[in-house]
Amino acid sequence: MKVRDLLIATTNLGKMQEIRETLKDLELEIKSLKDFPEIEPPLETGKTFFENALLKARYYAEKTGLLALADDSGLEVLALGGAPGIHSARFAGSDATDEKNYLKLLELMKDLPEEKRTARFVCVMVCYHPSGQYITGEGIWEGKISFAPRGEHGFGYDPVFLVKEFNFEKTAAELPLEIKNQLSHRAKALKELKRKLPQFLQSL
Asked: Cβ of 84: how many Cβ atoms within 10 Å?
């Protein structure tokens, strides 16, 4: 099978590193949005993670003529009715940073006891070909929200996300990348997508 260019449609270096590591054994030449600085990002007008992932993947595939992989992911907190959800990246406003986002979350949840701090990360990935064909992957990572941030690794809400697989005693930001890459919502979505990729590439 010939080597194909694959555009990873994200500016997030953490995501880029995770995806590149998982796909390293496939016949793919990985490109990033840094290779296409002239392309303005699309408006994410979808109402679900899938709609936004599809919108982004289609947009960049059509703009570049390349196979494009995009994801939409976020944190859903049961006690907050599923918020921040699709608004996770901009939860604290248009000038949001990771820290501003998780500090706002902690403030909203400060009076909630441990048993009401259930949360999950959700990720939907779409790999889209300019012909209109695409495949998807989805992953969910169960956990709870801590009372204070901990850990130096990861990004986003990782410092306040207590991981179920470690009995809610470690945050995602306390896990080495190789462990997180086995457990995370993005890892699960990417593994599902990766299983479908060889057959998908052959069909193009």
From this structure: 22
| Torsions phi, psi for 32 (to 5 deg) | -125, 170
Compute, in degrees rounded to 10, the torsion defined by CA atoms 13, 165, 49, 64. 30
Contacts of 85 (CB under 8 A, 6+ apart): 74, 75, 76
CA distances from 57 to 5, 121, 132, 155, 159 (A): 14, 20, 10, 22, 28
The CA-based diameter of the chain, rounded to the nearest angstrom, is 56
Q: How many CB atoms lie within 10 A of CB 79?
A: 16
pLDDT digits (tens, 9 = 90+) for 156-203: 999 999 999 999 999 999 999 889 888 999 989 999 999 999 999 999
Give the active site residues: 72
| pLDDT single digits (tens) 117-141 | 999 999 999 999 999 999 999 999 9
Q: Does the predicted TM-score (pTM) go above 0.85?
A: yes
